[in-house]
Amino acid sequence: MKHHFASDNTAGIVPEAWDALAAANRGFAAAYGEDEWTARASDCIRELFETDCDVYFVFTGTAANSLALAGICRPQHKVICHRLSHIATAECGGPAFFTGGAGLELLDGADGKIRPADIERVSQQPYDFHRQLHKAVSITQSTEAGTVYTVDEIKAIGEVAKDNQLHFHMDGARFANAVAALGASPGEVTWQAGVDVLSFGATKLALPVGETIVFFDKSLSDDFGHRCKQAGHVASKMRFLCAPWVGLLENGAWLNHARHANECAALLAAGLERFAGAELLAPVESNAVFVSLPAAVHRSMREKGWNYHLVTGDTGARLMCSWDTTEEHINQFLTDLESALSD
Ligand SMILES: *Cc1c(COP(=O)(O)O)cnc(C)c1O
């Protein structure tokens, strides 16, 4: 099977991260994050965001989101998020489990985005003792629809959050792709726009394993290290989670790889648009392409060996590009698609 477009986590590890991992493998190092790689990786993240934030390394994006939300919500609280958000649809109830019972308030919104007016509307519902209290808002950047919130859109959500005493969480499983698309600085996209805590992922971008939780509001992370440890998310050989981050961040490799993946998605989308039978389902702004094709065409593509996910019925597909996608992969896919469409 060809898994090139099935997800961005079907790709391998970028060379910069691989080299750093090999370098970290020399000799002995202190355990549980007391080592120099963890210190360097944390400093890289503080430099990247140009602020003195608190950084925690965990194994998965689900843990990053669930623990970040556990840092800002208690069981009697509720998180406002998009109906299609990963926290609502793909984490097996992780946020409820790690918060001890906090709920999700699901909002609709075009192109995977929630709107400030809707956040305002639900957080200003008349007080009702019987309901969980809205305590946080969570957005995904880039979104589950492959779109990207602009800095102004994030700022507007940040303002509504502040006005309504909501903490502001960002699921940045594909944060680098969003930053590459916006051409803004990581700080502008997050804390300067009001984000309190970020799940900063790079597994899909480049790494073998390991995501970070970045607290910009350090008053929220007092005893957070204990929460991570309790959840089983403090690696004893932490240097191996952290060294790849150093390789990725120190020389700007993260942004180059994200740009490449985004450019591949644009190229793929342009190729798809040439076919009358293909219809793009969302604007292509990051490394995802959502396209509708006849069900028979998907079956034929599968017979030709292409594995990718159908996300809406049996026609809407999601195609992801990664750092390792090449023009040749795209051309092979389009050539097979042309033949599938004419079958
Ligand atoms: C992949 C993904 C995550 C993290 O998933 P894990 O499989 O737990 O690493 C979180 N949010 C979004 C939007 C994702 O796409």
Radius of gyration: 20 Å
Strand order of the largest sheet: 1-7-6-5-4-2-3
Structural shape: globular
What is the first-to-last residue Cα distance?
A: 21 Å
Query: What is the number of E strands?
Result: 11
Bound molecules: pyridoxal-5'-phosphate
In short:
The chain has 343 residues and is an alpha/beta fold. Helices cover 42% and strands 16% of the residues.
Q: What do you see in this structure?
A:
With 343 residues, this protein is of the alpha/beta class. It has 14 helices and eleven strands. It is 42% helix and 16% strand. The strands form two sheets. A seven-stranded mixed beta sheet has the order 1-7-6-5-4-2-3, with helices on both faces. It starts with 14 loop residues before the first helix and ends with a helix. The relative contact order is 0.17. Pyridoxal-5'-phosphate binds next to helix 3. Residues 60-62, 65, 86, 140, 144, 171, 173, 203-204 line the site of pyridoxal-5'-phosphate.
